């Protein structure tokens, strides 16, 4: 992480007038704030502090708190330095008089994307979840938060709805005007999106980009967080999203921006579904939920690491079943899979030459995939279309009546709260459907060529291959072959297929 990636914040400290209740001087609090900032990837660009005691003594109100509110509202210091949030030791440091909390939240949430943190970590002041807000939540009633949040959003949305290009850093893939596609970055980004759609891993892409010297617009190396953030952004297909919600027009359709898109809305929806599903789940080629799977957190160097499992029968009659680890064999051009030593959780009684196992499993999976290409690839139309249209029409009607004051506030919000989750549910369903359609349309006929190719642009990398294998197989159980050197026996490999 470089200096420019840090979030610019201010901090606030307050020494209470009642010394007996106060364990922290301003200096102490500032030290804690510094640690908090460092831990959370923030940098403090200005510091505010009030001293209740001296304020009383001098008869002067040193209102740095008020000054800070001004800074937070405008989002910048007098010299133009951007301010994206505030750090304190604890909520109670902000209290000076009634109404301070409200005004603080109001100033901080005046724009989207600001952060607030205390010594325990970030707190979401945009959230309606009062429970998680602690003291803040106790003071501000639910409705008040809603009101402030709505006001801040409306401000932002009003601009977004016009499809205006908002100020900020140049997004990767576009030129400085933020509209025209970048001749080098746009194709790269499109390729990356397609790779992930085809089951590729983001980490593998980052590694490739690092090798090629592809940098972020700020000149940094790509890492998993930054690249997945870019791929999750609907900007790719011309849409806008604020805090996880797509910006819709009055007809309930996503608003298209003024910039050139890199992929189609259908492709983006499929990507979005992939990221949503990756939060711990894997879905098969036809969109079915295959339940929890261990995530591929890191880029594996071998085809079957963590997929191949030990088939040794232990003394108590159970199968060892531990995932095998892989390693290069010294002075040989092949690797082997082996069960970890008992000290680190395996039985240590199995080892198998890796290249032959990989080849056998690859051929089995390829045969299965090729079989599929003869099956139906047309998934038909999405059946929720009509229902989604109806719900969106209802929402539009509600908004119109609300605008004309022919409906009460209470009724309006009750209805909106009922409709919104239903529409979200349908949209999520539509996304999953698009993902299925995308995958079904994928050309599997060339898979063998792409699998073994070393040079073709569309060759599969290891993470994509692992993706196909994990999609096809639950596991490969490697059964023991007995003592001594023996020829490779495929019967000792048990392929556990997903159906
Ligand atoms: Zn074992």
Give the SSE layout.
Elements: E1 7-15, H1 26-40, E2 42-51, H2 52-58, H3 64-74, E3 85-87, H4 100-108, E4 115-118, E5 121-123, H5 135-139, H6 142-161, H7 185-197, H8 202-212, H9 224-232, E6 241-242, E7 245-246, H10 265-277, E8 281-283, E9 289-292, E10 308-310, E11 325-328, E12 335-338, E13 351-353, H11 354-373, H12 385-403, H13 409-441, H14 447-452, H15 462-472, E14 473-478, E15 493-497
The structure holds zinc ion (ZN).
Characterize the structure shown.
- This protein is an alpha/beta fold and about 500 residues long.
- The chain has 4 domains: about 5-160, Resolvase, N-terminal catalytic domain (Rossmann fold, 3-Layer(aba) Sandwich); about 185-280, Hect, E3 ligase catalytic domain fold (Alpha-Beta Complex); about 310-375 and about 445-495, no CATH class; about 385-430.
- Helices cover about 40% and strands about 15% of the residues.
- The protein is built from 15 helices and 15 strands.
- The strands form 5 sheets. It has a 5-stranded mixed sheet with strand order 2-1-3-4-5, with helices on both faces.
- A hairpin with a 6-residue loop joins strand 11 (about 325-330) and strand 12 (about 335-340).
- Helix 10 packs across helix 13.
- The longest helix is centred in the last third of the chain and has 33 residues, at about 410-440.
- It is globular and about 85 Å long.
- Bound molecules: zinc ion (ZN).
